[in-house]
Write a structure and sequence with these properties.
- By secondary structure, the chain is of the alpha+beta class.
- Helix content is about 35%, strand content about 25%.
- The chain has a seven-stranded mixed beta sheet with strand order 8-10-7-11-9-12-13.
- The radius of gyration is 19 Å and the shape is globular.
- The two termini are about 15 Å apart.
């Protein structure tokens, strides 16, 4: 599954999301992870996300992915509404497994599943799980995607292409083995799914002055940085040699011929942090056992300049409709 293009969204979607409700602080805006709504004396933070690009652990993944978006605002996720659709009436074991996995994920960070809907549809070839995640600001300073400032450092946590590599190892293991990857390679890649939550680092970076945060989902790190730059009205300069690409990710990228910078990567957080807060922020992450890399700076201009050893590539165009995992599903359809 992929997103519609920015052009389609601007013409076909956003014209129908305009509201005059004074309690809507942040409504439907391209690239922003959450909506912000004034509720009494507090602010409700909300987000919805579907998962159809995975089969194994889909309930667990769906909960983490949606709750990650809440955390990028600096607020912890508290409540979950769960939609689960399976292909056939007989898929009750699959339904139960999805619910078990979703419950396990929610309990990892103290959230509650408070309702939702379950059903089946013959039009599906694999399960679909969508999660609406909710939280409250409760006095916290909230962070948006659009807040980057000139001179901020660009931090990336854990590594790139984590989720996509794990899904390929889980759901495309036959293709991986035909491509020369070993069982040990598959096991290492599958373990990347254990790192899919960015809640701890997002809340920590918010406390340490992050000006903008975005979790790395469809389109990969490159699309994430493009959206952050676009919404902030600035550019970013990134040193490709500093990008954290794990050896097992590089192996899968070579075997499947995908670009790690364009591969979905829940578990990776991109954040911009003021220069005088970077040391404390990275020290805090290190104490938590979370890898982070200072990969670049926010600059005047537009787009993302990727500095390489031999050339500099300047990416300007938002291409949210493109994602390497979606391309893998098209190349190697699962039944």
């Amino acid at each position: 599954m992929s997103k519609f293009s920015l052009d389609v969204l601007e013409k076909r979607v956003f014209p129908f999301t305009v509201t005059k409700d004074p309690d809507v602080i942040l409504g439907a805006v391209f690239g922003e992870d959450v909506a912000l709504t004034r509720i009494g004396g507090d602010i409700l933070v909300s987000h919805v996300d579907p998962i159809v690009g995975a089969i194994s652990n889909i309930g667990w993944l769906a909960v983490h992915v949606a709750c990650n978006d809440i955390a990028t605002s600096g607020a912890p996720p508290r409540w979950i509404l769960l939609l689960v659709l399976v292909p056939a009436l007989e898929d009750v074991d699959l339904l139960e497994q999805i619910m078990r996995d979703a419950d396990r994920a929610a309990k990892q960070f103290g959230a509650s599943i408070i309702g939702g809907h379950t059903g089946y549809s013959s039009g599906l070839s694999r399960p679909l799980v969508a999660v609406t995640a909710l939280g409250t600001a409760s006095g916290r300073r909230l962070v948006r995607t659009a807040g980057a400032q000139i001179g901020d450092h660009v931090l990336v946590t854990k590594g790139v292409a984590l989720e996509g590599t794990a899904i390929l190892a889980q759901d495309f293991s036959d293709v991986a083995q035909r491509s020369g990857l070993t069982q040990q390679d598959l096991e290492k890649a599958q373990k990347l799914m254990d790192e899919v939550s960015i809640i701890p680092e997002a809340l920590t970076l918010a406390e340490h002055g992050a000006t903008a945060m975005h979790d790395v989902t469809r389109g990969g790190l490159l699309e994430t940085l493009l959206e952050m730059a676009y919404l902030s009205g600035l550019g970013m300069e990134v040193d490709s040699s500093r990008l954290p690409i794990r050896p097992v990710v590089a192996l899968f990228a070579q075997a499947f011929q995908f670009d790690p910078l364009r591969m979905i990567s829940s578990g990776t957080l991109a954040a911009t942090v003021p220069p005088d807060r970077v040391a404390d922020a990275t020290d805090a992450l290190t104490k938590m056992g979370i890898l982070s890399a200072d990969v670049g700076r926010v600059i005047e201009g537009a787009g993302v300049r990727l500095l390489g050893k031999e050339q500099t590539l300047h990416y300007r165009e938002i291409q949210c409709e493109e994602d390497e995992l979606a391309r893998m599903w098209a190349l190697y359809p699962r039944h």
